[in-house]
Amino acid sequence: QAKICAILPRRSCFSRKSSSNPTKRQIVAANVDTVFLVSGLDRNFSPRRVERYLVAAAESGAEPVIVLNKTDLCDAVGDAVKAIQVITESVPIHTTSSSEPDGLNQLEVYLRHGRTVAFLGSSGVGKSTIINFLLGSNRQETQSVRQRDQRGRHTTAHRELLVRSKGGVIIDTPGMRELQLWDSDRALESAFDDIDVFSQACRFRDCQHQTEPGCAVRQAVSDGQLTTDRLSHYHQL
């Protein structure tokens, strides 16, 4: 029978607004060193969703790593990688497939003794399949996506901490179809570091990059140094 001996202080915390009560904070995972942001390269691939996860990861204090899974179902993997590189230049990006172990083996470097990683992403992106590979056994149940709309099914219904025999701890989480950010002000500066750099030259320190005169961010858009979509999504978040 398990016994709680102590509660460790939180040094990192991935959270979101509760789907049932937006005024309540829901803790997804805590004390995580690396968070794998998994996205499937099938018809449900969305760079905007990855961008939202990056903001939440920056807020958490954990090191984000982007995993683009299901490369065997995508004919334009290079284009998908470039779409993510537009969003971030500093976060590592790995391409993986359950049929190609080489890509999955690259994730081993993050799973050393004393390190904890968490897998986050929508339902059906292949988190459980990747975890089974890293564990070396079919510990987590897997399901295929629905064919009619390519939406994932909730295979993992609860959060679970898994200890690897080769070292490292894995936290598996249920798929999230929506991610409402809890408190993203500081995290936005990290996830949108390109906009943050341009904003240093704005005339006003509290510039919102909308209609203010002397906005260096909107000038960067006009000069082609920043895309309209990038700034638009920044405002949405």
TrEMBL record:
Keywords linked to the UniProt accession: Cytoplasm, GTP-binding, Hydrolase, Metal-binding, Nucleotide-binding, Ribosome biogenesis, RNA-binding, rRNA-binding, Zinc
The EngC GTPase domain, residue ranges: 30-177
CDD domains (alphabetical): YjeQ_EngC
MF terms in GO: GTP binding; GTPase activity; metal ion binding; rRNA binding
Family annotation (Pfam families): RsgA_GTPase
Protein's GO biological process: ribosome biogenesis
Domain CP-type G: 24-179
Name assigned to this protein: EngC GTPase domain-containing protein
Source organism of this protein record: marine metagenome
